[in-house]
């Protein structure tokens, strides 16, 4: 996270002092670095040496319009999994022909909207979905571009909850049934086969699972072409791992780009890549204030004003996120604390027994690497407000998502007059 550094003992995001933001914006809040977002996209783009490829930002990782727009202006397409994400992509300026629609549970409404929006293709996850797309396409008197998502039965991902390419997972079509499934699709009205797709998980830090999956799918593409199926697009998914822990080794993006270039260069396909976490994870911090310092015989706690409803990854996945003080720790008098929120759940925590220097109530902390699957997984549990999101560019910052206060949340409830 090179955009987040200490200068004269104060934490800066690019050239902006975090304390200066906190004087104007109520904590907790998300804070993103625009330069980091751009640099990550360019790093990936420059690692790939292919004649025809498309980077399609996976919107599920971070759906803020400013962030989607940032990637759109760099030439990105989008990978979406809902009608809402599709609408966000279009509103942010992503061309419809650069949008792929993934996900296991597309509804008739979503399929119709995507067809009418003229997207690049559907990544189809089941025979039942194929039939539904065929039915909606017939009704609209069009042919819809599809690829089938093939499940290669390869284990990958940093957590079993984000591994998506094993046989027992809900995603995709068993690779052993691929040829049969394409034959079935070819005989459906309203269906135009243009591609093939796989996605084996998230937070993958090793090259081997990608290599194994590519080899399997390349073989299937050869068999499909022999049978007359036209495969013009190969969607290789996402899952590119990043660094969360200081000692963690992220995926070598140059080795990944080289792998794609070597394996797919002669395939004569448009290659689609769906990065999400890789582009956004280390672009942001969550700034939170210490409400109470609580010491007991068994444990020490820093109770902060952020909670699991703002950022649930540690609770949901047991994930590690480095937590630092806004004023740089002077190495020395370190004590171990659990960093916890005010929500009435034991699972409402961000870190356990981490060493932190002298801190007091009202001091600020920063939870790092929260740009992916942070804000998008937030809720209003305990009727807690939805917090601000801030974007920093060099020496300026601006709110890119407004806080929603508890009064507005409560006002959404409707009480029938017969109660």
Question: Could you give a quick summary of the protein structure above?
Answer:
This protein is of the alpha/beta class and 419 residues long. It contains twelve helices and 21 strands. It folds into two domains: 160 residues, Lyase, Ornithine Decarboxylase, Chain A, domain 1 (Beta Barrel), CATH 2.40.37; 247 residues, TIM Barrel.
Report on this model:
With 419 residues, this protein is an alpha/beta fold. The chain folds into two domains: 4-32 and 281-411, Lyase, Ornithine Decarboxylase, Chain A, domain 1 (Beta Barrel), CATH 2.40.37; 34-280, Alpha-Beta Barrel (TIM Barrel), CATH 3.20.20.10. It has helices at residues 18-24, 34-47, 65-73, 83-91, 108-117, 127-140, 178-186, 208-226, 253-264, 277-280, 313-317, 406-411; strands at 4-7, 10-13, 16-17, 29-33, 53-58, 77-80, 99-101, 121-124, 144-151, 173-174, 191-197, 233-235, 270-273, 284-295, 300-304, 323-325, 335-340, 349-356, 364-368, 388-393, 396-401. Helix 2 (34-47) runs parallel beside helix 9 (253-264), helix 5 crosses helix 6 (127-140) and helix 8 packs parallel to helix 9 (253-264). The protein starts with a strand and ends in an 8-residue tail after the last helix.
């Amino acid at each position: 996270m090179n955009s987040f550094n200490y200068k004269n003992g104060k934490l800066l995001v690019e050239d902006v002092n975090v304390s200066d933001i906190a004087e104007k914006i109520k904590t907790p809040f998300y804070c993103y670095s625009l330069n980091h977002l751009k640099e990550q996209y360019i790093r990936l783009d420059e690692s790939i040496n292919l004649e025809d490829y498309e980077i399609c930002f996976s919107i599920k990782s971070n759906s803020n319009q400013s962030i989607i727009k940032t990637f759109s202006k760099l030439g990105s397409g989008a990978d979406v999994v809902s009608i809402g994400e599709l609408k966000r992509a279009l509103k942010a300026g992503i061309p419809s022909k650069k949008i792929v629609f993934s996900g296991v549970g597309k509804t008739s409404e979503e399929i119709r909207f995507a067809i009418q929006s003229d997207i690049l293709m559907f990544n189809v996850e089941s025979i039942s979905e194929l039939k539904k797309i065929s039915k909606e396409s017939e009704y609209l008197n069009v042919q819809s571009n599809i690829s089938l998502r093939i499940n290669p039965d390869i284990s990958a991902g940093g957590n079993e909850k984000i591994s998506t390419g094993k046989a027992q997972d809900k995603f995709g079509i068993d690779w052993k049934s691929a040829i049969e499934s394409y034959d079935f699709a070819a005989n459906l009205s309203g269906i135009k086969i243009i591609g093939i797709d796989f996605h084996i998980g998230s937070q993958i830090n090793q090259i081997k699972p990608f290599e194994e999956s590519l080899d399997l799918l390349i073989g299937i593409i050869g068999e499909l072409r022999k049978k007359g199926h036209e495969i013009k697009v190969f969607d290789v998914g996402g899952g590119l791992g990043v660094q969360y822990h200081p000692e963690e080794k992220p995926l070598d993006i140059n080795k990944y780009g080289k792998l794609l270039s070597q394996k797919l260069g002669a395939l004569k396909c448009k290659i689609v890549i769906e990065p999400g976490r890789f582009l956004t994870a280390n672009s942001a911090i969550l700034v939170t204030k210490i409400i109470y310092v609580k010491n007991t015989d068994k444990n020490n706690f820093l109770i902060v004003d952020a909670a699991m409803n703002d950022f649930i990854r540690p609770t949901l996945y047991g994930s590690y996120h480095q937590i630092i003080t806004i004023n740089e720790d002077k190495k020395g008098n370190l004590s171990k604390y659990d960093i916890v929120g005010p929500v009435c759940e034991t699972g409402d925590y961000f870190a356990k027994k981490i060493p932190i220097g002298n801190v007091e109530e009202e001091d600020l902390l920063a939870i790092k690497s929260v740009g992916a699957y942070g804000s998008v997984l937030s809720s209003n549990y305990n009727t807690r407000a939805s917090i601000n999101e801030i974007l920093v560019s060099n020496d300026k910052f601006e709110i890119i998502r407004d806080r929603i206060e508890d009064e507005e949340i409560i006002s959404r409830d409707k009480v029938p007059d017969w109660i």
